[in-house]
Amino acid sequence: MTQSRISMPVVSELDLIFQDHLKLDNFWDQQQLVSEPNEPKKIISFVQRIPTIDPLAFLQNFNHSNSLHFYWENPRKQEAVIACGVTQKLLIDSRDRFKIAQNFIQKCLKKTVRKGETSITGAGPHLFCTFTFFPDADKSYSPFPAATVFLPRLQLIKKNKSCLLIVNVPVNYADNSKLIVEEIKQKINSIDWSLQQKLNSEINECFASNYNSISEDSEYFKSVVTSALNSIAIDEFSKIVLAYATDVVSPVPFRLIKSLDNLRQRHPDCYIFSTSNGRDNNFIGASPERLVSIQNKQLVTDALAGSAPRGKTTAEDVQLANLLLKNRKEKREHQAVSDFLIERLRQLDLKPQQLPLQLLQLSNIQHLWTPIYAHLSHDLDPLEIVAQLHPTPAVAGVSTEIACEQIRRYEKFDRSLYAAPLGWVDYQGNSEFIVGIRSALIEGNRARLYAGAGIVSGSNPEKEFAEIQLKLQSLLKALV
Ligand SMILES: C=C(O[C@H]1C=CC=C(C(=O)O)[C@@H]1O)C(=O)O
Fold first, then answer.
1. Chorismate-utilising enzyme C-terminal domain: which residues (predicted)?
2. CB contact set of 219 (below 8 Å; sequence gap of 6+)
């Protein structure tokens, strides 16, 4: 059996933590926190260091199918952020969704008062956001609104082995602080710390062979690529990213935690994510693509486009990598993304700098990759940046507007959260958003898997379809 990755606290250890930090007398100053009857309720955001816990064990303990969650883990970077339950939320169905989300976040953060171990870097409330690819997602197909923003009840931040628990509790002038402290304490005490051992001891079942899959017509996809190539030839647009969806039905309901565990083991260099709408629709995946990350006013974004499979031997792998780095069609596909990102950041009055072109080698596929940096010299809300960058030509095309029009015409399904920005913003303006590619929408025993490929002049319909199959197969293998 794989060795357990968690340390199991004994109750007395937790009690000690509470004695130090939750002693009621010192916990918070009632005078400072109570709201006047007509004021909006204040929210205490209580930060507490807790013993190391596996992020999936945390999700398993606190996720309820009728509430929202957000899970995100980068195994290689040993980072995770998980949110369960809701203290404040806003569902937005408007084209102005980024601005509305930004205002909501600012209002929410104004009401929060940080307590507990607040001196630890990054120790504070985060708001979690998901946006659909198109601002007007088709409601009959997309179970998610154009934007969802929420301040969770419980949040875990994990960096290496250090874990912070954040509990966000609204306080009314009439609330009894004793009860709130008890609630926090009970939540921590109720964690089943042994879950990771159970996950590890399970046989890595894969029902892939039992699935009934209803794929879109592959010939239709290839004909659409050919039609797009004709439009590119007459300069209607220069790039388009076309996606393909496969629906699978399993004899038993999909298991969220086990599927995520498989994804993180198979794709340790990706961002593994899951989010729900509180109605049993989970959107999960393993995305290599970061839309934007902001830490202490340093912005990073990734131009990621242009792909090749990994080789079966080292020699074949090196050969495929070298071919990818030299391939003019793949480089054109990539350049469209880096040019777009640089231009869009300049429009925000930033001075972006790009690193030389490199390879991002993942377990099943390799990509051309250009990391782009910028210093935020003036105040810019993270969501203004997300609005400016989404959708990049890694998921839409060039020009954005025409490519999006054509995507709506060609694709027979609604993208919903596929290829859309998913992420968080914290109380200090730090933020991270990924692009929800290599993803699946799960409901009970049904899953819709999505993957796309960039089409530029020189693309070949057969090869683009093979690239999509490569991406989908690796996702399918993780679903159980
Ligand atoms: C749109 C997807 O991938 C994008 C990201 C990296 C490489 C891509 C490509 O080579 O086509 C795509 O632009 C997807 O996997 O669904």
1. 219-471
2. none
Q: What is the pTM of this model?
A: 0.91
The tens digit of pLDDT for each residue in 300-349 reads 999 999 999 999 999 999 999 999 999 999 999 999 999 999 999 999 99
Q: Return the pLDDT at 10.
A: 36
Tokens read off for 250: 């399993």
Which token pair is 103? Answer: 């205002």
> How much distance in Å is there from the Cα of 396 to the middle of ligand 1?
10
User: Does the structure's ipTM exceed the value 0.90?
Assistant: yes
Chain centroid offset of residue 104 CA: 20
Spans in the chain with pLDDT lower than 70: 1-40, 137-140, 172-181, 184, 192-216
Contacts of 46 (CB under 8 A, 6+ apart): 114, 115, 116, 166, 167, 168, 169, 184
Burial of 308 (0-12, 13-18, 19+ CB in 10 A): buried
DSSP calls for 22-53 = --HHHH--HHHHPPPTTSPPEEEEEEEEE---
Residue of minimum CA distance from atom 8 in ligand 1: 305
Tokens 């940080």, residue located = 114
422 alpha carbon to ligand 1 midpoint, in Å?
16
So where are the chain's domains?
A: 11-201, 208-478
Which residue of the set 111, 115, 158, 239 is catalytic? 239
Atom index in ligand 1 nearest the CA of residue 471 equals 15
Q: How far is CA 168 from the centre of its chain?
A: 21
Among 272, 257, 238, 244, CA closest to 458: 238
What pLDDT shows up at residue 17? Answer: 44
The topology under which CATH files domain 208-478 is Anthranilate synthase (3.60.120)
Which CA distances in Å does 205 have to 65, 246, 269? Answer: 23, 21, 22
